[in-house]
Amino acid sequence: MEQKLKAELADLGKALANTEIDQQFVQAMKPFFDASTADMQNLSGVVAGVQSNFDALLKLFGEPSDTVSTELFGYVSAFLVDFAKAQDENKKRIAEKQRQANKPERKKVRVMRRWLTRQCSRSEEADYVWDVVCRLVAVLLKELVRLV
Amino acid sequence: MPHYETRLQSLQLKLSFAERATEIRQLAGQIAGAINDVGSNDNFKRLLEIILALGNYLNGGSFRGAAWGFHFQSLASLAQVKSINRGQTLLHYLAEYVERHAPDLLTLPQQLPYVTSACNGTFEACTLSSFTASLRWSTFAFDSELE
Amino acid sequence: MLSRCKLSFEMIQVALTSLDERITLDQVSTLLRHLPNSSEIDKFVEYDGDVNLLSKPDRFMHTLIVRYHSIK
To answer: Cβ contact (<8 Å) for C32 and B4?
Structure first.
């Protein structure tokens, strides 16, 4: 990227140095050329700095010197993503285990609820209060099964 | 038509230079950020130490390798080493261990934003080696700066 | 060439003389994609008749090529 830009700027320099080129061209291009040559130098400095930091990083970790930045950071970021995923999977596994452990409890609650429902429907007195209490308890038990 | 083409190419450069320079600068910044994430983040180093220790324990010895004891490439193998009983991998075990003994490292992916953004293919088209001719550091003695 | 690149004479003229933002990057790219081919160049370089007898597009091409074609 940087190399290409530098090369194109160099081509412009050559064109400006060409004696046959017209003054109109020179007038339109020279200011741009001067300003961007300075910019380019600055930019090349920045890039060289990053390159040298990267080389130092490779050396620090004993990685092969021809490693490309996408490779190196690719390994690390893939690992980090997998690491986060493993944490999630652990959480899910533990939650599932807990659910399994509570299975007998849940079964007990379901059985109680069914018994209660039968009791409620057998009631011959059509006792309003008893009916309401039955229904309320049945609902609560249903919730309990879900939560356990 | 050299002059015609040259004129057009010069104009093209003039109109596109600023944007291209900005793009290069931004990319350099991202890579610099990633270098900092990997090389200077203490938490990341701690995690690497834990992984190394884990490897030592498993192997009853040390990994073969260079300064840190292993290459980044082998980080990938953590997810591949499976346990017999639970179909879990070494990575799951690592996560469990970290949760128990170093829970502040659990959020490491979020602590290293530049490296994680490498996943989005930011680095794909523009690697450092396309910036400059890749510097060969074989001119430096390998051992000179190892502790 | 003019029909290929679908830009007006005025546009091309502006591009070549002002050499600034009066023309867009896209337009410049289009022009670069459709350069006059060698037969067109030869045709106009070798023409030694009265330029005013040429059609408007041809006259434009003639000016373009003669003016900006370096004879080396």
So the answer is: no
